[in-house]
Amino acid sequence: MDETKKKEQATTHKIGIYLWIWGLLFVLSFFSYMVDWYNFQGMLRWSLILIFMFLKAGLIMAFFMHLFWERYALVNVLLWPMTAIACFIFLMVAEFEYTVFTRIFYFVTGG
Amino acid sequence: MSDPKIEGYVFKPGFSGMAKDTGSDQTMFKGVHWGKAMMWIFLLSDTFIFSCFLISYMKGRGSTLVDWPYPSEVFGLHVFGVDVPLLLIAIMTFVLITSSGTMALAVKYGYEKNRKMCGWLILATAIGGLTFVGMQAFEWSKLIHEGVRPWENPFGAPQFGSFFFMITGFHGTHVSIGVIFLFIYAYKTFAGHYDERKRGWFTTMKGDYVEIEILGLYWHFVDLVWVFIFAFFYLW
Amino acid sequence: MSEEYNDNKTVHAQSSETISGGTSGVAPDIDYVRPAEIPEQDLYHGHSFITKWVFCQDAKVIGVQYFLLATFTGIIGLILSWLMRLQLGFPGAAGFMTAEHYYQFVTMHGMIMVVYFLTALFLGGFGNYLIPLMVGARDMVFPYLNMVSFWMFFIAVLVLLSSFFVPGGPTGAGWTLYPPQTILEGTPGSGAGILLMCLSLILFVAGFTMGGLNYLITVLQARTRGMTLMRMPLTVWGIFTATVLAMLAFPALLVGALMMSLDKVLGTSFFMPTILKAGEVLEYGGGSPILFQHLFWFFGHPEVYIVALPAFGIISDLISVHSRKNIFGYRMMVWAIVGIGGLSFFVWAHHMYVSGMNPWFGFFFATTTLIIAVPTAMKVYNWILTLWRGNIRMNTVMLWCLGFIVTFVNGGITGIFLGNVSVDVPLSDTYFVIAHFHMVMGIAPLMVIMGAVYHWFPLVAGKFLDEKLGKWHFWLTFLGAYSIYFPMHYLGFIGVPRRYFEMYDSPYMTSAVGMNEFISLAAFLVGAAQFILIYNIIRALKVGKPAGHNPWQACSLEWLTPKVPPEHGNWGDRLPVVHRWAYDYSVPGAKEDFITQTTAPSEVVDTGVEKT
């Protein structure tokens, strides 16, 4: 790409969108802090934490890292490998539950 | 970002566009700079590193029979006679998000070839990052002072200390590397390397404001990881 | 460094007038190829000996450097295997051999062969040399990073080998490095040895990441005009997919190695449970040894395919060239490679059936393991169907290819045994497992490497290797390798456990003493046979027959450079323009039995060539 093409390509986004996302990130961080402040427990706590976390991560990736504007070829290349991580997480949850079970079974209740 | 103009190539949106891009010759990511593609793939690899850390943390915390310390209290601060839970962490999060915002704006001004604005914003980001590292050092020293060690801690399971120092240490290393590069890039921006298209130190590629975006991707990634650490380590 | 670049030396190559390599002035429409999207790459040309041959930024030189260093470490691995076989076949024959030494040799042999030999050789060696040539790039996209990648590998090898000379010697915990034994006293090399191993692995991963980013971006973003992904030779597909796996799997190894070092140095208990040693409770407690196994095999199973996929790709090309037929089911082959790559992240715990993990996992992982056999089997069928009624040249390269197919099928079938939990449980930790993985990821990829060396040596050096020596090399290796590993299956069935220093008079072993000695003798022979290749290479460099341009009449781009061996920048003044896939062999009606990738469609209109 020569200079002229480069200029055509360099379309940027309005500053407003960045400020909006910036503000939203502060608000969401504040909310997740409030989860701790009000000491929610149980499922409510965990689901709120996860929702705010994924919202924040999504906003950062989509707008600050420009993934929202990127072409699908790039987006899909980046997101599909996460299925391997998801599988790993899922199986490790099953694994630590089993480890706890064996530890309680053999060490606490004495087999 | 938005589709560049490429001679002899008509862009399509969505998944049919993805099929067309993938099936085309020369490049798969149309109009994406080599360095930017590299940074994305590197970040993907780095995501796997942090995921492995956090998965190990989950497995370690889940399978220990000793009580896990209550993070809200461990990381709380005692200010003006009141105990505020997670105060330092909240400020750190605030600082890191602030620096992420300034970085996003720096990328925008870089593409608009606004040298001064871009440089100042990068500098602001670097200072934000430096503040974050400083506060992390404070947090570490406070915990060490309270007797938390990688191999033990007075509040409960010894794995708490191990995972805490390892994961925040690895993240802090990323932040520190980012800060160093932010200062270098701030210098390069102010010196006009990107306007003059001057070649870099270890590369034959010509300087371009896209390098600010590449650095920005790294910095946002560091912020992104912090979002996950904040949720899983401090709030959970 | 001097600031000299070939700045815009080749501007005309980008302009849309030079659309094809055709002879007529105006190119017809059917030859139209989209103009270049990206400007020419600026290259740094070295001038001194140091910048040309040591800290070189030319991917071809880096490839050869990787090849030589990986071969060097591979020979060390080979010598270690000799020492092991000496002890196993003839206990006590080597006076210095203690049980500690034996375990250290087992460990280093495994780690060297898998990571520092096969991975480095396929991806670093063949990847660096072939990717830019095959996709029509001038070089890797980040030459400086590429150079650093090799030197990181060099340091990693130095660190690894230095562990032979530290107090306590190298680690002897087996190449899987399972804690808690790895870092507890009593295991050989549990002090400095294991730390150096972890450090070396971390360095290797860091260096490999630099190289891997290069391979990926070169394939994705720096192909020449007309080179679509579905026109790439399968070699590039194999190396590309393997690199993707490496980029996503090595992180788990890095994390595992880091946590293990912390357990050793700082006394953390990531992997260390409460341990009683000689009646005393150790400081460790509460950690999870099985976590390391999961991390290790989350890396370890993709690692198997990191070695296998480049081998699959290379063998496809060799078979196609030397049987003068297009590869059967090219698209199926590509999707099989991609499918195997994707699935390889979901099968890891089939290495852990007897580890005491959650018993339900056996069901999940046996299923995924058997699913991954499907694309693998498809590939084997396609190789055989490519050979079917081909115009086969029975040269050394083809012999290695046939050897590979037989060996791979053999190792693959025993893999189906071991993928099933109920069969694996009695067979695990016996010689059956040794035989399985040496067949499938030791001997089979090695055959591909040998075939590839005989195939591409004329490109790298411009001279042929000697065919007669090559055939001796092949038959000694092939028959010798089967003499080693076939009896091992039997040893496994009668229950001989692996990783035992000496069998003494154990009842299951006494019946097979002769067989064990025979295996050792065969191992000495096969190892020695490899030096035929080294002699062959040195001889060919001195007195070999000059190969000239495209000696195998191949279609793919790497043979079409203006100079053989290709010089820095690969393509002279103008980049090649690609019009077809790499497999147009024996096209009906064509003048010759191959149509190169750069041949314009207007030159072959009267032939039966298909649009690809």
How would you describe what is shown here?
The complex is a heterotrimer of chains A (111), B (236) and C (612). With 111 residues, chain A is mainly alpha-helical. In chain A, α2 packs antiparallel against α3. Chain A starts with a helix and ends with a helix. A two-stranded antiparallel sheet of chain B has the order 1-2. In chain B, α2 packs parallel to α7 and α6 packs antiparallel against α7. Chain C has 15 helices and two strands. With 612 residues, chain C is an all-alpha fold. In chain C, α2 packs antiparallel against α3, α2 packs antiparallel against α15 and α3 packs parallel to α5. Chain C is globular and about 85 Å long. The interface between A and B is large, with 62 and 62 residues.
Sum up the structure in keywords.
heterotrimer; A: 111 residues; mainly alpha; 2 domains; 5 helices; disordered N terminus; B: 236 residues; Four Helix Bundle (Hemerythrin (Met), subunit A); 7 helices; 67% helix
pLDDT below 50 for ≥5 consecutive residues: which ranges of chain C? 1-24
Number of strands of chain C: 2
How would the global form of chain C be characterised?
globular
Radius of gyration of chain C: 25 Å
The residue-averaged pLDDT of chain A reads: 86
Structural class of chain C: mainly alpha
Q: Summarize the biggest pleated sheet of chain C.
A: 2 strands, antiparallel
Strand-pairing-aware structural class of chain A: mainly alpha
Please, how many helices of chain A? 5
Helices and strands of chain A, in order, run as HHHHH
Proportion of strand residues of chain C: under 5%
Q: Radius of gyration of chain A in whole Å, from Cα?
A: 22 Å
Oligomer: heterotrimer
For the largest sheet of chain C, list the strands in their spatial order: 1-2
Number of domains of chain A: 2
Q: Estimate the helix proportion of chain C, in percent.
A: 55-70%
Question: Terminal Cα separation of chain C, in Å?
Answer: 44 Å
SSE order of chain C, one letter for each helix or strand: HHHHHHEEHHHHHHHHH
- Counted by DSSP, the helix tally of chain C is 15
